[in-house]
Amino acid sequence: MNILADLEELLRVYTGRPSSTGGRRPRVAVILGAQVLRGGRASPTLEARTRHAGDMFARGEVDLLIPTGGVGDHPPAEADVMSLILRDMGVPETAILRERLAVSTWQSAVEVARISRHGDIDEVLAVSDPLHCVRAVSAFERAGLVAVAEPVYGSPMWRKKWLRRGQLAREGGALVWYWIWYGVGRTSRQ
């Protein structure tokens, strides 16, 4: 994809007409982090993303879950909070591979790509809010992985229209920022 195609896709997602991904789906799901609240509690957005991925595992749609995210404003790491939720959902520890360093979508893409090279993983599902999936997929592709969006329509960032509008503006700006600083949305890979 290129930056214009990414911005067009962002508008398609916002208006409820995302491009079809079709075809075979990866068996590895990367859960993009979100805020951890005081006391180590998951924010509603983090909870929604994690439960979505855990349900996919329970249905046999994926074999491995990679929660990604380091320590933000409140410890512990986002990946650790997600792992606890997944374990409470019955996901075995052997199906969880934590990435605890990243504090941005770009860092998540780079770290998951690094981990993936050791685990022979070359394609992933990017589990996140629908609008964030556009940037996440482009970032993972720039980092060297084939990525497919797995939008979480149950996220409060999608269900609440005022949050969705704010996220549209944020993601549009973030796509341009990622294009300038990291080359995300450019036609060639690293």
Give a quick precis of the structure.
This protein has seven helices and six strands; from the N terminus they run H-E-E-E-H-E-H-H-E-H-E-H-H.
The dominant shape is globular
CATH evolutionary superfamily: HUPs
Label the structural class.
alpha/beta
CATH topology: Rossmann fold
Secondary structure tally: strands: 6
Helix tally equals: 7
Cα end-to-end separation: 14 Å
Q: Could you estimate the helical fraction of the residues in percent?
A: 40-55%
- The order of strands across the largest sheet is 4-1-5-6
Instruction: State which percent range the strand residues make up.
Output: 5-15%
- Rg: 15 Å
**Low-pLDDT windows of residues:** none
Write down the overall mean pLDDT.
93
Helix-strand sequence: HEEEHEHHEHEHH
| Domain tally | 1
Specify the CATH class: Alpha Beta
Major sheet attributes: 4 strands, parallel
Name some characteristics of this structure.
about 190 residues, alpha/beta, two-stranded antiparallel ribbon, 4-stranded parallel sheet, single chain, 7 helices, Rossmann fold
